Amino acid sequence: MSAPFSFPSDAAAPRRALLPLVVPPVVLEGRTVRLEPMALEHAPALAALCEDDIFTHFSVVLRTQEDVERYITRALGAAERGTERPFVIVERETGEVLGTTSYLDIQREHRTLEIGWTWLGRRAWRTRVNTECKYLLLCLAFETLGVMRVQLKTDRRNARSRAAIERMGAKFEGILRNHVLVRGGVVRDSAYYGVIDTEWPEVKARLEGFLQQAG
């Protein structure tokens, strides 16, 4: 078998093993939350959380159980195709559903993925929940799945989300202008951030510090 072709200029470029990225359904346990594979049975609990304010900068607005069922069905279809892996966020102490988060845009050949479609019921705002979810997902991505890069993106105007992403140590990579149409035709510019594998130890330490402070 012949060796992979490369140009002389590739000699000093970083390399990663050519191994396919496969993201199986898993349960992730933190101190406060448990991330479970999303299923249609979660629709009533998620629908009970839905308020318009939650989705101010979201691509869609979920209001009814039917909306949530369509949301879940789409995500499960993407999971079947291997491009997404959706989770429901559950409070460990009570078993109460708090919201959702997902791996998106799973690139099997390039070993990259995105964390997104994260939304929380109002009770979980300004708690350790979102930080712990990001920590669990990033640990799995970098330490078990061996991803090369994790991407995060949000509406350019979503100051709260951008501040949270920057606080965790993700690097701002730019604005994709006129990126998508959301909420019935609104033009959205998307702010892109990333964490690469060589940056993960620093980001991990930051997140662990925040979680320790949160008690």
Brief synopsis:
The protein has 215 residues and is α+β, with helices and mostly antiparallel strands. Helices cover 29% and strands 30% of the residues.
Which keywords apply here?
215 residues, alpha+beta, 8-stranded mixed beta sheet, 30% strand, globular
Indicate the overall shape. Answer: globular
Would you tell me the structural class of the helices and strands?
alpha+beta
**Number of H/I helices:** 5
- By DSSP, the count of extended strands is 8
Strand order of the largest sheet: 1-2-3-4-5-6-8-7
Uncertain runs are: none
- Main pleated sheet: 8 strands, mixed
Beta-strand residue fraction: 25-35%
Secondary-structure element string: EEHHEEEHEHEEH
**Radius of gyration, in angstroms, nearest whole number:** 18 Å
Mean pLDDT figure: 94
Report how far the terminal alpha carbons are from each other: 55 Å
